[in-house]
Specification:
The protein is of the alpha/beta class and 117 residues long. The chain contains four helices and five strands; from the N terminus they run ββαβαβαβα.
């Protein structure tokens, strides 16, 4: 499951993804992602992606995550923050995907951790 929220007052686009993604969900997620990006001026907004309750990603969907990370970087958000999964395996998997595409966003264990920086 996933959800997109835009807070124009705080200039934040919040994406929440949880559970175990399937192929059909990944396609719908990417469509919704492009739609959400069209509603904000990225350079004025922070992007926060909360995947704290995301399960390990199936191997055939890894490229979709990599594509999303690359897209996040390309759009030029003020800040890109990924809230780490609770699952250690999912966390390692996301770190490896991020490293493979030279992702520039910050990985944190909580939003408070990022705000304290």
């Amino acid at each position: 499951m996933y959800k997109f929220e835009i807070d124009d007052k705080k200039k934040v686009l919040l994406i929440t993804a949880e559970g175990f993604f399937k192929n059909d969900e990944s396609e719908a997620f990417m469509e919704k992602l492009y739609e959400a990006f069209g509603l904000v001026q990225a350079t004025d907004y922070d992007l926060i992606v909360d995947v704290s309750n995301l399960d390990v990603v199936k191997q055939d969907l890894v490229y979709k995550i990599a594509d999303a990370f690359e897209l996040y970087d390309e759009l030029g958000f003020k800040n890109i923050v990924i809230i780490n999964p609770i699952s250690i395996l999912a966390k390692v998997q996301l770190f490896n995907i991020a490293r493979s595409v030279h992702f520039s966003g910050a990985f944190v264990d909580s939003l408070d951790e990022w705000k304290a920086r």
